[in-house]
Design a protein that fits this description.
about 300 residues, alpha+beta, L,D-transpeptidase catalytic domain-like, 4-stranded mixed sheet, elongated
Length: about 300
């Protein structure tokens, strides 16, 4: 026969468990809302892999980030990362795939649509990393291209757009449908156009050896091949169909405006010169006339 004390203990345990479950039900949404929201980075050549900046995610998860420059080894949470799986932004920021974070000790759970990953280290250190939309802005006035994934600026590079008479058309376009690592121009002597992304008809964003900071192309938007190779990076990142907005115009040299005062001054000086020339000529004629007359030849 069960004693009353035993029944009380069982009842107390049941109430305690219910209280814990209630507390978790209350706290869980708060923890979810407190998770740090991060716009991840993805690449067109591996669109299902989501990357995060290791410099951004490590403090959120409370992990130590260690770089061994001699061995060229990066460690997170005392776990060496696989260097073959890491990528970089053109600025040098190192990106790690979500799977590497899991290997370093994080707990990963994906949303039902697969568009965001919840990355947790313990109960209170959590980040939500998402596949954010991509878009590109081309600033013709300042000759720059800026690429974004969500609110994250992933590329900021100088460009060279179409020169006078071959201007790059402004407007809102979408990347593609043509995209090629080596396209050749059908209009300009089969000229090579590495890392080409079509914008509109014969207008492409592509790499070029010389990219001055002013319009110099036949209409295309040139990205540098040198340095971090923004042209190649952009090609591997941009998805077909991503919006590309081209705005502004390269400043045209303004017509020279002459002030009334300077016009009057130049006009007055010219008149003085003409009068002086006329007086000099008349003086020379008169001197010649009198000289001949004095000699009796007139």
């Amino acid at each position: 026969m069960v004693s009353s004390e035993s029944r009380r203990n069982t009842s107390n345990k049941r109430n305690f468990v219910q209280l814990i479950l209630l507390a978790l039900a209350i706290v869980a949404p708060v923890i979810a809302d407190a998770a740090t929201q991060i716009d991840g980075v993805s690449f067109a050549d591996s669109p299902h892999i989501l990357f995060a900046s290791i410099e951004e995610i490590s403090p959120v998860l409370g992990w130590e980030l260690h770089l061994d420059e001699q061995l060229e080894q990066i460690s997170l949470n005392n776990t060496p990362l696989d260097p073959t799986r890491l990528r970089k932004l053109p600025t040098g920021t190192v990106l790690a795939p979500i799977e590497e974070l899991e290997r370093a000790g994080a707990t990963i759970s994906w949303s039902e649509d697969g568009m965001q990953a919840r990355v947790a280290s313990g109960l209170f250190k959590t980040a939500v990393i998402r596949f954010a939309d991509k878009h590109v802005e081309v600033d013709l006035a300042n000759q720059r291209l800026r690429a974004y994934q969500g609110a994250r600026l992933v590329l900021d590079s100088h460009i060279s757009s179409g020169r006078e008479g071959r201007k790059t058309p402004p407007g809102d376009f979408r990347a593609g449908p043509l995209k090629s690592p080596m396209h050749r121009s059908r209009l300009y002597h089969n000229a090579p156009m590495p890392w080409s992304v079509q914008v509109h008809e014969n207008i492409f964003i592509h790499g070029f050896q010389k990219v001055p900071r002013h319009p110099a192309s036949h209409g295309c938007i040139r990205l540098p091949l040198a340095g971090a190779n923004p042209a190649k990076w952009f090609y591997t990142w941009i998805d077909l169909g991503a919006p590309i907005s081209i705005k502004g115009h390269w400043p045209v040299a303004a017509a020279r405006v002459t002030s009334p005062a300077s016009s009057f001054a130049r006009s007055s000086i010219l008149k003085i010169i003409i009068v002086a020339a006329a007086v000099t000529s008349l003086g020379a004629i008169a001197f010649s006339f009198f000289l001949k007359r004095s000699r009796g030849k007139v």
